[in-house]
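Reproducibility note. Readers wishing to regenerate the assembly model reported in the main text can use the exact inputs given here. Chain order matters: entities are listed in the order in which they were concatenated for prediction.
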Amino acid sequence: MTTSVPESLAPPGTRRFRSSETPAQERMSRRRRVTLLVAFAAAILFLWEAVKWLGGVPWRYENLFGSGTDFFHDPPLRFPFATDLNLPHWWDILGALAAPVQRNQDQSLLQFLLGASFYTWREAALGFLVGALLGLLLATLFVHYGLLERAFVPYVVASQTIPIVALAPMIVFAFGPSITSVVVVATYLTFFPVTIAMIRGLRSPDPRALELMRSYAASKWQIYRHVRLPASLPYLFTALKIAATASIVGAIIGEGPGGIPDGLGRAIINFNQQYISGPEKLWGTILVSSLLGVVFFLLIVVAERFTLRNRPGAAHG
Amino acid sequence: MTEQPVTPAADAVVRISGVDKLFGSDSGSVTTALQGINLDIGRGEFVSLIGPSGCGKSTLLRIIGDLIQPTTGSVTVNGKLCAVARHDRDYGMVFQAPVLFDWRTVEDNVKLPLELMGWDKARRDARASEMLNLVELGEFLRHRPYQLSGGMQQRVAIARALAFEPSILLMDEPFGALDEMTRERMNQEVLRIWERTGITVVFVTHSIPEAVFLSSRVVVMSARPGRITDLIDIDLPRPRDVETREQPRYFELVTDVREALRRGGADQIEPGVDEVPEGASAERTRVEGGIG
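Running the prediction on these inputs yields the following structure tokens for the assembly.
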């Protein structure tokens, strides 16, 4: 009886490993993803110009590519949304990005926008951080004190139904025209997804895991630290991805009434006013703003991959 | 440790007296999960609770472990109230699911209770590898739980439950989710560990062969209300092994348990859970919320 049972009691082939794909297959699927992404972007650009070819204003290009030939095309239709004012050629947008931001300046529009993006990102990141911590704190309180949850969750939800453009000037009024106000606006948009997701995440452990901890006479803090928090991490990262993009939007909106001259918010307002004379600049700004959101989002994805690298299914999280 | 001898009879580790458990539902109806449970479990015993689903065997296990409170009656463990016993870390728990944490390695799962109980690192390390060797998973220390088979995961759960040397092991259908072959091997394994450690085991199962093979005593329960209908001593010689399952005495005892279950009404059609048992209204004031 006390003799040992052979090596493993598990029947062969029952050991499950994380990824069912070999490294070669993984490289393959990554290459395919990249190809798909590029193909999709190319398709959009093609469609864009196809619309202009069909219903834009006449295309006039003198001395095309320095070849000495002129190019002229008169679209058969006239779509009101496809004029050069409403839908500039995308190469004109790229051209505007490369051109000086103002006459007689060394700085290109792209350089200017990258600087503004970094400035806005710092505000957004601060708001993101504060919002995430606030959301975590609220969710923790709500999960442990049902009375607080019933009392306050309706207000948390209601807070998000107020249009932020209406609220931003009031926040600036309260906190003064400064970075603080911008950060508060970003915080306001980010704490909500984190709160809602973490209420769910902190409640996600198997009830038996909680019984197990109870049988160890574990304290509430120990249960939180060792079970609830680690179990909630996948929920947290889902929320942080939403919060990352929301914080950028919050910061941009906050910069207007906040009177911050150095960020994307001011750039958008300025180029909006100059739209008639140069629509490409606003388009370029919008392009860079959305890229900023994507970059922030990807930063969170990288953090998620790293943090959850040992969880099952992590390879495709 | 508040060791107060409560009628110090015959080395009883667990003493259950007059336990009733009523569950109320949101619709206001009341179910009697357990009624008039009296049971003493001796030191080093291997006791199985067997009965049809809804007989309250898992509820009784949870009451012993102080995970839920009885409506009336009391449970003492090592002469202490079960709440005190729980705070003294007298219980090791194993559930039907292994309940291992994916964010920890196998080794760190076993160490979790030791961390909570403030063991120092050297002792934790030594203990974890000792326990994993005991369940023959010594070479899987650094694996993740999801890399192991169901049977292996359950052995990790057993190692974790035994790591801090509790005086009682409470097992709630621990092998219910395993296939028959794995289950029989796990039965063998659990007996080996029980013999080596001398721990008291309370084991909930709905498998008659498992209960007979493992136990020194089988507690037969019946449903609605959940109550104990029979106690059957299992006098099969030890150590028990594969051959035990082929002895005539083993088959006799399996038949005994089966008939005891039948006498208790296990083969009757079970009434709806929400039905209010007679006399329940008088108890209503003491009913707690359901366990959900």
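We highlight two features of this model. Residues 20 and 72 of chain B are 5 Å apart (CA to CA). The radius of gyration of chain B is 19 Å.
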